[in-house]
Amino acid sequence: MAHTHVPTLQDTRTTLDGLGPRVFGVSLAVGVVGMLAAFGLGSAQGDNLKQFAFAYVLNFAFFLGISLGALIFLGIMYVTRASWNVVIRRLAEVMAAVTPLLALLAIPVIVLAGRVYGWMDPEIAASPAMAHKAGYLNQGAFTLRWAIYFLVWSGYSLFYWRSSVAQDKSGDLKITRRFENLSGFALMATAICLAMASFDLVMSIDPLWSSTMFGVYYFSGSFVSFFAVLTLVTMGLQNSGRLTRIVSAEHFHDYGKLMFGFTFFWGYIAYSQYMLYWYANIPEETAWYLMRSTNGWGKVGLATLFCTFALPFCGLVSRWAKRNRKVMAFWAMWIIVAQWLNLYWVIMPEYSEHAMFSPAAVALFLGIGGLWFAGVTRLAMGNSLVPTRDPRLEESLRFENA
Amino acid sequence: MSATPRHGALHALMTDFESPSQFMQACVKVRDAGFKHWDAHSPFPVHGLDDAMGIRGTRLPWIVLVGGITGFSAALLMQWWMNAVDYPYIISGKPLLGLPAAFPVIFELTVLFSAFACFFGMWGLNGMPRWHHPLLANDRFRRASQDRFYVVIEARDPKFDSEKTRAFLASLGGAVVEEVREIVEG
Residue ranges of chain B with pLDDT lower than 70? Predict the structure, then answer.
């Protein structure tokens, strides 16, 4: 047959080996230094850590979103019984399985809640519009909900990761069957918790404003960021001589399609949320957008419209772009920055009416990001980077886009 | 029964294969021999056939892009002209051309024009519509939808030479080399 040779796992390296501890060490160092720098910068503001708290919520939301994107990706792959992803699925498994670490990182959000959330402000809490929300938006209920969210997310993500690693040894087909049967519930529970967490974490900063689309808005942005991170991690591993040949242009083409598709989905959701409020023009609804389109924030918003949506849309629309490593690497990095900028535009105007640059937010990007990546690396050490005995591995290795 | 079609000039020479692997090897040889007007027919999609035939990527995306840009511009111009020029009328205090309100229509027309460009562009690139094709009148070709793989070299190819091409096709290892004749109307 004229078929090209189908690669096997023997054609490449599938473990981190010596690279693991080095990447872990560097990420941990970046994380700790970033955290300390951010704390220093935040303390120097002399605003009782208010800016630090906002910057923390921003970056926590960003990296939580990536892990939840990974968790939802796994669920979708199992309910659809997809095979193309098997060769890169372990990477998504470890990105999802750091959720217990994110639970630890959520503690400062709860501790610093008083500096960020409007419902903690006695003046706002006393307003008549808040009367029926007080039973939901209070520190006890807030903390309890976070405990439930992390119980659900950690439960599912550890289940996926541990069972998949166990399958590497046993080759038990029942594990795959169990994934497929449980993933429907996992997706529903994860998605409900994700939407509610986005209300708690980001939307309730201004408790007088609400949007039923906010969960989807946060999810769509997070999902794009997840695919961008997955693309860069896969490329990084390939540059170090791991997963070469077995992850081919065909798999990158699919990353590209998902990044492109969810970039558009994000744009669609962001626009729909905006357009409905713009058209109805009801003061309590437009207040949120008014704050974000005046005093310099409008320019940031316009920048996100182009950087987060229009430019990557044009850049990734072509098949050629999705199959070109350099182009894909460029847009993956671009999307991470752009999605972060979008969250900045959503969160930071509540801290400062005038558009401002927060060095603490950048330091915390490195701080939380470094710790997150150290956690991901730690989980990836010691096991294969590929689910070696997944029944669909063979199909994934010979995968070709039609 | 309709009248038996009368056969005209030589349209193409055809050979057929029983297995996809022979078929793929034959395609590689025809490709390397430098033929331009030839085709391969298989009852099911064969992975790698595009490469074996040396088919370059389709131009369809560019046609779709033009369609999409046309739809985008048409929708924007139409709404601007209708709402801000021809019949300016303020609705619920919005600007005459309120972009947020215009985008649903822009989006729809972009999608519609892209879809039309894709569908009819595909027709154009595939030489459609046409009512008939000489191959379809060939009895031997009937198994193209069942279990045979065909390589067909058309007579209009600049490299085509009825004797040499016949010998070349015979050397590919197919069952028979068969003439495909044009159909004469009437």
Answer: 1-7, 185-186
The residue segments making up the domain with residue B144 are 6-55+129-184
Tokens 């850049």 sit at which residue? Answer: A315
Chain B interface with A: residues with Cβ < 8 Å: 20-21, 24-25, 28, 45, 47-48, 51-52, 57, 61, 92-94, 98, 100-101, 103-104
Same domain, B47 and B133: yes
A57-105 per-position pLDDT tens digit: 999 999 999 999 999 999 999 999 999 999 999 999 999 999 999 999 9
Nearest to A230 by CA among A251, A255, A208: A255
Same-domain pairing of B65 and B120: yes
Short-list A116, A103, A115, A187, CA closest to A143: A103
Of A2, A271, A318, the CB nearest to B25: A2
CB contact under 8 A, A2 and B94: no
Same domain, B133 and B121: no
Partner residue facing A279 (CB), from B20, B48, B101: B101
Residue A54, class by beta-carbon neighbours within 10 Å (0-12 exposed, 13-18 middle, 19+ buried)? buried
Q: Check CB contact of A274 with chain B, cutoff 8 Å.
A: yes
Q: Are B15 and B169 in contact (CB under 8 A)?
A: yes
Query: Is there a single domain that holds both residue B51 and residue B142?
Result: yes
Are B117 and B136 in a shared domain?
no
Q: Which residue of B has its CA nearest to A275?
A: B100
Question: Are A9 and A246 within 8 A, CB to CB?
Answer: yes
Q: Tell me, yes or no, whether B117 and B146 share the same domain.
A: no
CB distance A219 to A195 below 8 Å: yes
pLDDT, one tens digit per residue, over A121-170 is 988 888 898 989 999 999 999 999 999 999 999 999 999 999 999 999 99
What 3-state DSSP class applies to B151? strand
- Confirm whether the ipTM is greater than 0.85: no
Give the strand pairing for B177-184 and B38-41: unpaired
Handedness of CA A265, A266, A271, A276 (dihedral sign): positive
User: Does B57 contact A319 at a Cβ distance shorter than 8 Å?
Assistant: yes
Which chain A residues are Cβ-neighbours of B92 within 8 angstroms?
279, 281
On whether both B108 and B150 belong to a single domain, the answer is no
Cβ distance of A1 and B21 shorter than 8 Å: yes
Domain boundaries, chain A: 18-394
> Taking each helix axis from N to C terminus, what angle separates A214-239 and A173-201, rounded to the nearest 10 degrees?
130
| B145 and B121 within one domain | no
**What does the alpha-carbon distance between residue B181 and residue A83 come to, in Å, rounded to a whole number?**
46
Q: Which residue has the tokens 């029944």?
A: A391
Comparing CB atoms, the residue among A1, A279, A318 nearest residue B100 is A279
Nearest Cα of chain B lies from the Cα of A179 at a distance, in angstroms, of 30
Within-domain flag for B1: no
A3 and B48 within 8 Å at the Cβ level: the answer is yes
Cis peptide before B158 (omega within 30 of 0): no
